[in-house]
Amino acid sequence: MGFPTHLRNVDAQDYVEWFKQFGSEFHRVLKDSGSLVIDIGGTWETGQPTRSLYHFKLLIMLVEEMGFHLAQEFYWWNPSKLPTPAEWVNIRRVRVKDAVNCVWWLSKTPWPKASNRRVLQPYSKSMENLLDNGYEAKMRPSGHNISQNFSQHNKGAIPPNLIAAANTDSNGAYLRYCRDNDLKPHPARFPSDLPETFIRMLTNKGDIVIDSFAGSCVVGEVCERLKRQWMCIDLVEDYLKGALCRFNQTNNKPSSQNSYNIVGPSFLWKNVDEEKPISLNGGRTRPKKET
């Protein structure tokens, strides 16, 4: 399993061409049963509130040119993400905050090894009630035929392809270590829940996991805890020196068990004042400060 993670200092328009050299090598060394997982954040076109398509172009290149298969697309939602980009979200108020990364799960064949039983989530209260009190098998209005098998207790719910994992103070020990040792911290860290989802679902104990853009080596920390073999690679020595703190037993803690509620989009709509019409200029000019 490979887990390249983030955008290097390469312009978005040049990123796909730059990544090809890695893509061909990933395909060469990956086993037929293995997976390639890429966490990649989106970006904005310079000077305007429109999105770059580079991460979608990367996916298409890896599938159509390199021969990978898209096993499934995932999305990492960071509930603690600050409103960005500030210009379009906070000042001109013409976009919502960008808080989701794309995660491409790719494979060399259509049949990589995987088991969603490894990453089950707690049942909802309504599902727990159904399991406790039974369910009448019948055809739903949606057309789905719900059988008696629906009421079987399977030790948890199958998760969606949306991973909610806040990127907050989980890196506190790492940042303190870098500060105390005069090391440059890696700027694009992620919570351990993100790689752990895929390491659990796609690998067995003893399997090899490679992070080719390791940064602060969160992947290695998770692999060490889950008894996978691993290799973390990075060109910046300070990042690797800082990563050493992740293997201190006092800092090597299991991932969090937080859950997050998603508020329905209409929750505050009744309080919205629509008497003032939306400006036709779409945020082309900055609004004047209200006094």
Tell me what the structure shows.
This protein has 291 residues and is α/β, with parallel strands linked by helices. Helix content is 27%, strand content 13%. The strands form three sheets. The chain has a four-stranded mixed β-sheet, sandwiched between helices. The protein has a two-stranded antiparallel sheet with strand order 4-5. A two-stranded parallel sheet has the order 7-8. β4 (138-139) and β5 form a beta hairpin. The radius of gyration is 22 Å and the shape is globular.
Share of helical residues: 25-40%
Structural Rg? 22 Å
**Uncertain ranges:** none
As for the CATH topology of the largest domain, it is Rossmann fold
What is shown here, in short?
This protein is α/β, with parallel strands linked by helices. Helix content is 27%, strand content 13%. It contains eight helices and eight strands.
Blueprint of the fold:
Layout: H1 12-29, E1 35-40, H2 54-64, E2 69-77, H3 86-91, E3 100-107, H4 125-133, E4 138-139, E5 145-146, E6 162-164, H5 172-180, H6 193-202, E7 208-211, H7 218-226, E8 229-232, H8 237-243
Parallel strand pairs: 2-6, 7-8
Antiparallel strand pairs: 1-3, 2-3, 4-5
Helix pairs in contact: 1-2, 6-7
Q: What features would you highlight for this structure?
A:
four-stranded mixed β-sheet; 291 residues; alpha/beta; Rossmann fold; 2 domains
